[in-house]
Amino acid sequence: MLTLNYQYKLIPTAEQATAIDQWLLVCRSVYNYALRERKDWVNSRKCQIDRCSIEREYIIAPEVNKPTYANQCRSLTQAKKENPNLKIPQSQVLQQVLKQLEAAFVNMWERGFGFPRFKKQMRSFVFPQVKPDAIQDNIIHLPKIGEVEFRKSRDVPDGFVCKQIRVMRKASGYYVCVCIQCDVDVPDLIPHGHAIGVDLGLEKFLATSDNEFIKGHKFFKESEGKLKLLQRKLKNKKKGSRRWSIVKRQIGLLHEKIHDGRKDFFFKTAHHLCDQAGMIFAENLNLKALGRSALRKACLDASWGAFLTILGHVCWKRGVYFAKVDANGTSQICPNCYTNCGRKELSQRVHSCSSCGYTTDRDVAAAQVVKERGLSTVGQTGTMLMEGKEIGVGVRTSARLSL
Ligand SMILES: [Zn+2]
């Protein structure tokens, strides 16, 4: 099964645009209402039933069940009888909103994310099931909204059918992200060819084990001044006024431009790496811990996580084997003799091994360690002697990409 996501720009009529806006508003209210329900329940169960809480008390009867995806769906069906607004969007779309909330809670329980927050704005909604032939020429059929024209920037490949459609509102207009699927077996990629390790850094965006550096584009920094200026402008305008909404839109467009530019750079970099390798290994970063550290802003600007996702996708498309390896201590170990050389200060740019004398750039050394680790996970250890040569093919792993 092969799944791809294609994004197109919609050209909705004024009515269709209003409909999409209205659906987004209903989705937001459903999300916030359901979150309120869950939040109240959590608060009311903070202390035992026979005690008094010092902080606050939410009286919810003990026999009331914990709000879950299933019973919130049921209450939604009930609420539709009283609230006609809830009947405007397609029912599956609203169920997806509840599913999204459920996912936010699962992320909190299992992945340590923060408590879900109320949404000021809903940016998109999704049709989980659509007709396989929802796209015809430059018309897309959206359930209940109707036939919407779109700019066909690329053709849907033969043999692919539509599975899901996400409708998005951005500062520059309305978009759809179409999930298309093809019923073919994709063979597991076999690790083969030249291997490279990749080390992501702040000073340079990326260093490879082949001594190549790719400078990062500090998109955010470049536009930061402009953004600050606009935000200051916004402050001086009366909220909700015409001038206020103009500036607000400019901010939205700038954010979008930063995002698009970054994405473009990631794709180009990923293709560039795939041009030279048969296997790519990268560190499995602990993004959560990094996000909390003092380097936060710089890290987020570099958005390594997004890059790794794109790199994984491009590798898969190009038939390059991609895997993430444990990132612990990659900057401490010598790639030549595996001695732990101890922690380096951030200012120390060169790796110089005290036991074997191997000297190279600090980031390149880390990338080389990543490469060695990667090779050992695919069962190709001892490649130190084979540096620069093709590495034997034939080791089949079941490890699939984590896209
Ligand atoms: Zn050494």
Whole-angstrom Rg: 26 Å
**What profile does the largest beta sheet have?**
7 strands, antiparallel
The set of bound ligands, ions and cofactors reads:
zinc ion
Mean pLDDT: 84
Order of helices and strands: EHHHEEEEEEEEEHHEHHHEEEH
Strand order of the largest sheet: 2-6-7-1-5-4-3
Please report which band the strand proportion falls in: under 5%, 5-15%, 15-25%, 25-35%, 35-45% or over 45%: 15-25%
Outline, from the CA principal axes?
globular
Class by helix and strand content? Answer: alpha+beta
Query: What is the count of helical runs?
Result: 9
Strand-helix topology:
Blueprint: E1 2-11, H1 14-44, H2 69-82, H3 91-111, E2 124-127, E3 135-136, E4 139-142, E5 146-151, E6 160-170, E7 173-182, E8 195-200, E9 206-208, E10 213-214, H4 219-236, H5 242-275, E11 279-284, H6 287-292, H7 296-302, H8 304-318, E12 321-326, E13 350-352, E14 359-361, H9 362-377
Parallel strand pairs: 8-11, 11-12
Antiparallel strand pairs: 1-5, 1-7, 2-6, 3-4, 4-5, 6-7, 8-9, 9-10, 13-14
Helix pairs in contact: 1-3, 2-3, 4-5, 5-8
Bound molecules: zinc ion.
Considering the chains and any ligands shown, give keywords for the structure.
single chain; 403 residues; alpha+beta; seven-stranded antiparallel β-sheet; 9 helices; 14 strands; 40% helix; binds zinc ion
Question: Could you describe the 3D structure shown?
Answer:
The structure is a single chain. The protein has 403 residues and is of the alpha+beta class. It folds into 3 domains: 12-125, no CATH class; 127-182, no CATH class; 195-386, no CATH class. It is 40% helix and 19% strand. It has 9 helices and 14 strands. The protein has a 7-stranded antiparallel β-sheet. The chain has a 5-stranded mixed β-sheet with strand order 10-9-8-11-12. The chain has a two-stranded antiparallel sheet with strand order 13-14. A hairpin with a 2-residue loop joins strand 6 (160-170) and strand 7. The protein starts with a strand and ends in a 26-residue tail after the last helix. The model is unreliable at 382-403 (pLDDT under 50). It binds zinc ion. Zinc ion binds at residues 334, 336-337, 339, 353, 355-356, 358.
